[in-house]
């Protein structure tokens, strides 16, 4: 039995939703990998650590993010 136009649209929308989810998963994975690389580099390279500290200064972070990073930022400030 042939699908109706509404069924074809629903199938296409479901496929699009799956593709969007896969794109978000890939993006999140890239952020995690790059974040890990950056954190490791900041632990070993004072220039990178200094740059990151400048990036988090001021009002650039949401309050919840600043609170989450506070122990790490305090550690890095002691290292510089």
Q: Specify the helix fraction band.
A: over 70%
Give the overall shape.
elongated
Number of strands: 0
Largest beta-sheet details:
none
Intertermini distance: 71 Å
Based on helices, strands and strand pairing, what is the structural class? mainly alpha
Outline the low-pLDDT stretches.
none
Strand content: under 5%
| Number of separate domains | 2
SSE string, helix = H, strand = E?
HHH
Mean pLDDT: 94
Radius of gyration: 21 Å
Multimeric status of the protein: single chain
Number of helices: 3
Provide a descriptive summary of the structure in words.
With 80 residues, the protein is an all-alpha fold. The chain has two domains: 1-44; 45-80, no CATH class. Helices cover 85% and strands 0% of the residues. It has three helices and no strands. The protein has helices spanning 5-44, 46-56, 63-79. The radius of gyration is 21 Å and the shape is elongated. The chain starts with a helix and ends with a helix. The model has no long low-confidence stretch (mean pLDDT 94).
Task: Please summarize what this structure is.
By secondary structure, the chain is mainly α.
SSE topology sketch:
Blueprint: H1 5-44, H2 46-56, H3 63-79
Helix pairs in contact: 1-2, 2-3
Keywords:
80 residues, mainly alpha, 3 helices, elongated, Mobilization protein
